[in-house]
Amino acid sequence: MNTHPYLRAFLAGVFVPTIILPGMLLLFLLVHYAMQPSFPVERGLVFPLALIPVTWGLWNVLWKASHASTHLSLGAHGAILPLLLLPAGTVIGTALGILQLGATRVTWFHAVQIPYAAIALLFAAVLAAYYLVWKYVVGFVNRTLEI
Fold first, then answer.
1. Are 27 and 49 a contacting pair, CB within 8 Å?
2. Which of 100, 123, 140, 145 fits 107 for a cystine, CB–CB 3.0-4.6 Å?
3. pLDDT classification of 30: cutoffs 50, 70, 90
4. Domain assignment of residue 72, given as a range
5. Each residue of 89-109: pLDDT tens digit?
6. Into how many domains does the chain fold?
């Protein structure tokens, strides 16, 4: 299968978040209807539901296009992606009024306060998870599609 390698790379990249995001939607529905929070949780779903799958697909296309010259492993390439997503999500969240950056913590929806230390620990876990998912899951799909 030598035709359209970038299209196949895009589809392989989109696969994982497309599988995971319905679970996030289910979690949102449970929170929204069962717990009935006083803040608009749905505003926080715009970024993940709209941009994450496309970003993963384009990131896999970039890996395909640059792998011959950079020789960067797929896992390391995938672990770089959160380094771009966190600032982008912060800018979008701040612009939409979802996040407020404070001196020691982030306020989410004017209701939930998260200290920067917790964000740093969570971000380290996300980097490790991205590395593993890109290395094993996206790598498997890439091999299956002969990328």
1. no
2. 100
3. confident
4. 5-144
5. 899 889 888 889 999 999 988
6. 1
